[in-house]
Amino acid sequence: MTDISINGISHRPVSGISEDSLSPERLRTIVQESYLNFLFGAGTPSSFFGLLGNVEDALTELADSPADDEVKVLVRASIHAYFFDSVLVPNLKIIERHADAEPVLTSYAKFLRTVNRILLKRHSSILAKQANIFTTKGLVREEVTYDLWCSHTTGKDVHHARPLPPRVPR
Q: pTM for this structure?
């Protein structure tokens, strides 16, 4: 087998493993030499948030319905009330740090700490020490990155870590 050196770090092909399997060594190489991207869908913390269901389909169907405008207004208000109560209101528990939200926040924090450790141990001098995390739970990610004092971007705005609290004079 041939030894290969990338950025001064010795690498060599892993023997005895089929091309379809992912060895720890291969995973380490991928993480070292690739951009890291993660995608978390709406179901990630499903035990905490209500399911969105078919709210969008229901609103579209309602708009196309031949029902009277008064009926449409009432049905639309009911759909919006469901969305508000089941999907939006639980977000207040995140901001208020309610006990129900802690498992979700802790899980995100553990993940972000792990990604941070991986990035800090990267040997590549070419790739930036950053990861892209795409999620429908932006508020959860935002709260956790603030707690971990991480800078992050929402795609258009850069948010820096919370400023250090003022020093208390002794």
A: 0.54
Per DSSP, the residues of 46-76 read TTTSPP-TTHHHHHHHHHH--S-HHHHHHHH
The token pair at 44 is: 């990630």
Q: What residue numbers bound the domain in which 140 lies?
A: 21-161
Specify the amino acid at residue 96. Answer: E
Amino acid at 114: T
Q: How many whole angstroms separate alpha carbon 120 and alpha carbon 101?
A: 28
122 neighbors 31 (Cβ within 8 angstroms): yes
Bridge-based pairing state of the strands 131-135 and 36-40: parallel
In a domain, 60, yes or no: yes
Please count the structural domains in the chain.
1
Contact criterion met (CB below 8 Å) for 148 and 113: yes
SS3 content of the chain, % helix, strand, coil (to 5): 45, 10, 40
pLDDT in tens, 98-146: 787 788 778 878 887 888 888 887 777 777 777 777 776 666 666 666 6
Looking at the domain assignment, is residue 168 inside a domain? no
- What are 51-98's pLDDT values in tens digits? 666 788 888 888 898 989 898 899 899 988 988 888 778 777 777 777
Q: What three-state secondary structure class fits 30?
A: helix
Distance CA 39, CA 5 (A): 32
